[in-house]
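note to self: dont lose this again. the chain is below, predicted strucutre after it. 259 aa total, dont forget to put it in the shared folder this time
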Amino acid sequence: MNATLRGLVFDIKRDCSEDGPGIRTTVFFKGCPLHCVWCQNPEGQGGKPDCGVCQGESQTGWAQGGRWYELDELLYRVLIDRPFYDSTGGGVTVSGGEPTFQMVFIGEFLKRLRQQGVDTAIETCGFFHYASFARLVLPYLNRIYYDLKLMDDAEHRRLTGQSNRPILDNLARLTRETALPVHVRVPLVPGMTATAENLAAIGQFLRDHNIREVTLLPYNPLWQDKAVKLGLKPQLTCGFMSDEQLAHCTQQFEPENGS
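---
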């Protein structure tokens, strides 16, 4: 593989414990086919470095503009944490944005990590070309974290800018064609994804495809500060979810609701 292969990254977070088992380093790749109105990482949506803002790893914990990394440099950056992976069963997670937006680069990145014996994971919105994913990325993964947002296609188009058909089809194929663990996650956005109707539809889809586990991700409004720094106007005004709201969402997946 050409050593000048480059990937556009907007953040590298170390000592992560929520993006897979053990202590992990999560690499956030820039670019996403979706434009969710509640996006937690708005700085990762665009596919190019943002002009007029700082680039590289930010001292405040997130990079506003993004930076191009050659493959060997990015590998060096993450393998600094190798002792933590080895001692805790951790590894490297690719996230975004949407990491499959840079399919060729992340495929080679993950391949090289696996050659080093590093556990690998991906966090994906599921909107990708399945054949390319199966060829370039899937062989070099240990686990997949897969987001399901909205089951109604019209609502999915309205709130993310894309159809949900490829996302649902890709998830169904993954559950049929791979033995890798596929962890489904549902972002809970009040009045949008966190409705009884939507969660019931997600639950039914999971049952239909024999997916027995789901992780609910409560809405976090703190992303709005990042949007303001980027000169964007947040489209949502809701705050943190209450305990009652979270309990209602959880109930949609409990056995008495047919889950």
